[in-house]
Design goal:
Elements: H1 32-66, H2 73-96, H3 102-121, H4 127-154, H5 168-173, H6 175-187, H7 193-214, H8 218-221, H9 224-234, H10 239-344, H11 348-444, H12 455-480, H13 491-499, H14 506-520, H15 526-533, H16 537-549
């Protein structure tokens, strides 16, 4: 049996009571014979369903082609036939999850009717052919419905949902009353025909009892509670349940009153317990406060006693110290008096000598005081001198900083002027080279055919080419170096030529200096530069000075100011 999912209630009767669930035993295991029979039935149902599906598929596919569906004819037939099985299976699955959706089964029935109509229309207007074609899909549909019913009963999800029909003999012998029973079963969802007949019998017996008690006018003479039973029976409730309804309602009201009384008693008990708990908590808080108050008072008394003891001890120590001082003073006074007496008994000469010594001591003390005063004055003067020295040093530092800032500004301005001068010198050199090359180009243009005649002409052409490439290389070298400063634009050329007389080009000096600076991260010394160039330190200094005068001011070392 499948357990009822959470949130799902079992079915109830119209009077609100739960319908009795049949306690039927679980499905017993199949015997070997039953298993063989089930296997044979399954094979037969599968064969019937396959035959019906094949026949329906062929008939509907041919009809769809005839109606112009073309290549979609086969897909259309599969959609209609498989839709029946899919919708029935989906309806079964949702019913299993206790989420029934009746529209799915109704759609399956519509597809079933459509399949029958399509198969019958395939043999129109032959009536026998239509009947034969209409019978084919019934095989498939019947097999699918049988499987659905079997699965539903096995999973116990369609139990108590199927409403039985009255037997055919009942319709023949009593059609009116049978119709009323059939109508009541569907109106109030009474699934069992036997239950519906029993309700009908109870109603008739109850009416006979009222007629016997109150006569033929029982409908007007019977009390309202007796007639209420018939009214409730018309709503699908059994007579026994309708008769017991007032008693059940009274019992329910009594139970509700009892529950309310119990709830009130529990609430009163809870309030009493809360009040007792609050009283106990208040008493505990008061006791804790009183204990804390007593502890604080005892601590205050202890502190006061300790303070009083310390005060008494201090007074005793002060008195003892005072007595000791007084005793020492007395002893000192006595000793002084004895010493004075002894001194008074000395001779006059000794007194005079003593007086002279006292005078000398007085002079010594005065001299020491004078020297101390002079030393204090000297210390004050030294302190003032130190203050003046610090102020002067601070002023000097400030001036040095100002000078350093001024020197930096001058250096930046000088570099800017040198860059501008160098740029103008380079422009002048290019213009001069262009002026020198212009006459040669003018003299060579009238005779282009005679140029390769003599080797001298070729050599001159090569010389011209070399002379033309020299300014270009110089220009590229000038543009590749950062902008530097030199107020003398023409003089560096002569000095550079003079400095390079030793076989070392200034461009090599500049390149070596820049390489050493990039490698070491700082400006190289003259000794390091000379070692890299293979010359002495003084020669390296001369080459660096010549390069600076030639316009390579980046070789100049930064000015170092004394701090």
């Amino acid at each position: 049996m499948l357990a009822t999912p959470a949130g799902t209630q079992p079915p109830t009767t119209p009077d609100g009571d739960r319908q009795p669930q049949p306690n039927r035993p679980g499905i017993a295991p199949l015997t070997p014979l039953q298993k063989k029979l089930a296997l044979g039935i399954s094979l037969g149902v599968t064969a019937i369903a396959g035959i019906g599906f094949a026949g329906s598929y062929n008939a509907v596919t041919n009809l769809a082609r005839a109606k112009g569906f073309g290549g979609f004819s086969e897909v259309f037939t599969l959609g209609v036939d498989l839709g029946i099985a899919v919708f029935l299976a989906l309806d079964l699955f949702l019913a299993w999850l206790r989420m029934p959706y009746p529209l799915l089964r109704q759609i399956a029935w519509v597809l079933t009717g459509a399949t029958v109509c399509y198969n019958a229309a395939a043999a129109y207007p032959d009536e026998l052919g239509m009947a034969m074609h209409g019978t084919i899909p019934l095989l498939f549909i019947g097999a699918v419905e049988a499987v659905r019913h079997a699965l539903g009963r096995i999973a116990d999800i369609t139990e108590d949902r199927h409403i039985e029909n009255p037997p055919l003999i009942r319709w023949l012998v009593a059609p009116a009353s049978t119709f009323r029973i059939w109508r009541r079963m569907r109106k109030w969802h009474i699934t069992s025909y036997v239950e519906a007949v029993r309700h009908q019998k109870e109603v008739k017996v109850y009416k006979a009892g009222l007629r016997n008690d109150y006569g033929r006018m029982w409908r007007t003479k019977a009390p309202a509670d007796k007639l209420l039973v018939l009214t409730l029976a018309g709503y699908g409730m059994s007579v026994s349940n309708a008769v017991d309804l007032p008693r059940k309602e009274a019992a329910a009201r009594a139970e509700e009153a009892h529950r309310a009384q119990l709830a009130e008693q529990k609430a009163a008990e809870a309030r009493r317990l809360e009040q007792e708990a609050a009283t106990a908590e208040a008493a505990r808080i008061r006791a804790a406060a009183e204990a804390e108050k007593q502890r604080i008072a005892a601590e205050a008394r202890r502190i006061a006693e300790e303070a009083d003891r310390q005060r008494r001890l201090a007074e005793a120590r002060e008195q003892a110290e005072l007595a000791r001082l007084q005793e020492e003073q007395r002893l000192a006074k006595a000793k002084a008096e004895a010493e004075a007496q002894r001194i008074a008994e000395e001779t006059e000469a000794a007194r005079r000598l003593r007086a002279a010594e006292l005078d000398a001591q007085q002079r010594t003390i005065e001299e020491q005081q004078r020297l101390a005063a002079l030393k204090a004055q000297a210390d004050a003067a030294a302190a003032q001198a130190e203050i003046d020295r610090l102020a002067a040093q601070t002023e000097a530092d400030r001036r040095i900083e100002l000078a350093r800032a001024k020197a930096e500004e001058d250096r930046i301005a000088a570099e800017a002027r040198a860059a501008e001068t160098k740029r103008r010198e380079e422009d002048r050199r290019r213009a001069e080279a262009a002026r020198r090359l212009a006459p040669r180009a003018a003299s060579a243009s009238p005779e282009p055919a005679s140029a390769p005649a003599t080797p001298g002409a070729s050599g001159s052409a090569n010389a011209n080419g070399a002379s033309q490439s020299a300014p270009a290389s110089a220009s590229s070298t000038a543009t590749s170096r950062p902008a530097t400063s030199s107020p003398r634009a023409t003089a560096p050329v002569a000095s550079a030529n003079a400095a390079s007389g030793g076989g070392i080009d200034l461009e090599d000096v500049v390149a070596t200096y820049q390489a050493l600076m990039e490698r070491n991260g700082k400006a190289p010394s003259d000794a390091v530069l000379g070692e890299a160039l293979g010359v002495s330190r003084s020669r390296a200094q001369q080459l660096r000075t010549a390069a600076i005068e030639a316009g390579h001011t980046e070789l100049a070392k930064p000015l170092r100011l004394a701090s």
